[in-house]
Amino acid sequence: MARLPGADSLVTLHRATDNVGNPGDEQRVELMVRRIAFAIGAALVAMSTATSAAARDGDGTLCVSRPDIDPDWQISECTTVIQSGGKTREDLAAAFNNRGFAYAAKSQYDRAIHDFDRAIRLRPDFAEAFYNRGTVCAAKRQYDRAIRDYDQATRLKPDYAEAFNKRGYAYAAKSQYDRAIQDYDQAIRLKPDFADPFNNRGNAYAAKGQYDRALEDYDQFERLIPM
Fold first, then answer.
1. So what CATH class is 50-158?
2. Is 101's pLDDT higher than 90?
3. How far apart are the C-alpha atoms of 8 and 1, rounded to whole Å?
């Protein structure tokens, strides 16, 4: 997954130290928290790549939101597409979205948000651009703004499991664990093999002191993502 620097702390990992059934349970929860910490950091900042392939034509062949391409090249190529003229609104929206992805990869979050804004103005039904802007807002710890963008992404795309999962992150960052759990539940209903919401729901249950439920979710996370 694409990992954006400087956005590691969108969700607090809570160590289980109180009200645990027995010392073995406590040690296991602490071990799981340590083992999944990196996976959480990576999942928080994954950016959607579901954009129009049309933005790749012409000279802007590297105007794609892919983490394996140097972001400076992406920015240059997307700028070429944007300035070339003759593109449809959909193509331009994809180019702004992809350039925003590249700016975010460089931790230039305000510039990324500006490009996502322009993508949304060009294409108000662009669910992925709302999702991406929400992810960058969350990286800036602007959780209420992130939640509004995830709200819109899920309205436009009701089966958007990743957006429900990300909104859960934002609610958890605000310590609204019940709301977070509702979103993780929905992400799991939509995509039962999606490992991240099991992991994150486990963290939310642990934060609420519901360690048995947390362990069940960590078990399922391990089954889906063997370590």
1. mainly alpha
2. yes
3. 14
